[in-house]
């Protein structure tokens, strides 16, 4: 390997990014792949009517903003704005375009203060700023978009309920996506029955729509994530570096270990400037904690659309034991779908 090549081959384990609350708030915009997302560019599957219904619901939600106009001159009576709930909640499987629609709503909403982030980014914002300062930071925004809405512990349940209630009371509208209906959030992960009042109070903010459909990433491909030989791995990384890309080159264990020391809200910074990811000796995971960290990491890799080259076990086979039958099943299935796409160039 030449010096020029080695200068763009790096290790994820050598990166220890820090982030501030102000940086998290500034980054709350749609991922790059959804920069131009619109209702018009969404392609509903005609076999599933709920996808077109979602477009119509969100278009109406976006259209309910705006200044009320007078009828009858300056002192005329203002037209009544549509009576809508302050939030919309898109429940559905992975790969049906929920994030595209959420980003399209964000683009359609009036600015300049509107936010788009994953659930984990909002919890990180609260952690960095403190609850009161986080509320003040978000107060006055027109729209708060929450992608991948999940409640994995009682503390998050209480915090997000309070946050949404305060923001809705101040006039902010909420839009969220999840693989779980709002009344079922937390099931299989903690004693959700102990927090039903909070969960039901939160769900009352939303008009909920179930979006059915097939995973669009699997429509164009079958099989598993691509696992390549060591020789193919070296050739691909060599080709990527010779073209000037910054490429990471790590063993799977090295990355899994390093993720344990980095807060998930900072995973995106691990990927700054990276054009391709190399993972050697991928194997099945037995720890659910490690598996969930990998899911969060893959979500950020997918947002950044960075291809993965990997040896060993196909990445979609790393979730071992009874992980796929537990409370995090949908998270794992989403990650598997994304890893297939990232290793197969789709």
UniProtKB/TrEMBL annotation:
<dbReference type="InterPro" id="IPR027417">
    <property type="entry name" value="P-loop_NTPase"/>
</dbReference>
<keyword id="KW-0547">Nucleotide-binding</keyword>
<dbReference type="GO" id="GO:0051301">
    <property type="term" value="P:cell division"/>
</dbReference>
<feature type="region of interest" description="Disordered">
    <location>
        <begin position="1"/>
        <end position="40"/>
    </location>
</feature>
<keyword id="KW-0131">Cell cycle</keyword>
<dbReference type="GO" id="GO:0005737">
    <property type="term" value="C:cytoplasm"/>
</dbReference>
<protein>
    <submittedName>
        <fullName>Cell division protein ZapE</fullName>
    </submittedName>
</protein>
<dbReference type="GO" id="GO:0005524">
    <property type="term" value="F:ATP binding"/>
</dbReference>
<dbReference type="InterPro" id="IPR005654">
    <property type="entry name" value="ATPase_AFG1-like"/>
</dbReference>
<dbReference type="GO" id="GO:0016887">
    <property type="term" value="F:ATP hydrolysis activity"/>
</dbReference>
<keyword id="KW-0067">ATP-binding</keyword>
<dbReference type="Pfam" id="PF03969">
    <property type="entry name" value="AFG1_ATPase"/>
</dbReference>
<keyword id="KW-0132">Cell division</keyword>
């Amino acid at each position: 390997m030449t010096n020029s090549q080695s200068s763009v081959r790096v290790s994820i384990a050598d990166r220890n990014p820090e982030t501030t609350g102000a940086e998290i708030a500034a980054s709350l915009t749609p991922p790059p792949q959804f920069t131009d997302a619109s209702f018009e560019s969404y392609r509903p599957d005609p076999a599933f009517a709920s996808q077109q219904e979602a477009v119509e619901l969100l278009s109406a939600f976006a259209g309910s903003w705006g200044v009320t106009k007078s009828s009858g001159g300056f002192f005329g009576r203002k037209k009544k704005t549509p009576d809508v709930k302050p939030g919309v909640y898109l429940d559905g499987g992975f790969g049906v375009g929920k994030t595209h629609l959420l980003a399209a709503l964000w683009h359609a909403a009036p600015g300049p203060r509107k936010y788009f982030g994953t659930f984990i980014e909002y919890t990180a914002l609260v952690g960095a700023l403190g609850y009161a300062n986080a509320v003040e930071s978000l107060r006055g925004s027109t729209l708060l978009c929450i992608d991948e809405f999940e409640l994995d512990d009682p503390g998050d349940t209480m915090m997000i309920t309070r946050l949404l209630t305060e923001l809705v009371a101040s006039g902010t509208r909420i839009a969220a996506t999840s693989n779980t209906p709002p009344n079922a959030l937390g099931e299989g992960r903690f004693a959700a029955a102990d927090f039903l009042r909070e969960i039901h109070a939160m769900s009352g903010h939303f008009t909920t729509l179930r979006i059915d459909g097939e995973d669009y990433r699997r429509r164009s491909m079958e099989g598993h994530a691509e696992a390549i030989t060591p020789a193919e791995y070296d050739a691909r990384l060599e080709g990527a570096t010779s073209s000037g890309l910054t490429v990471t080159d790590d063993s799977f264990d090295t990355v899994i270990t390093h993720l344990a020391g980095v807060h998930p809200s900072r995973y995106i910074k691990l990927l700054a400037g990276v054009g391709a990811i190399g993972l050697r000796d991928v194997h099945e995971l037995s720890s659910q904690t490690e598996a969930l960290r990998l899911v969060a990491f893959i979500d950020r890799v997918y947002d950044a659309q960075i291809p993965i080259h990997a040896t060993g076990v196909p990445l979609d086979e790393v979730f071992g034991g009874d992980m796929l039958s537990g409370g995090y099943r949908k998270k794992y299935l989403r990650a598997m779908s994304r890893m297939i796409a990232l290793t197969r160039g789709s």
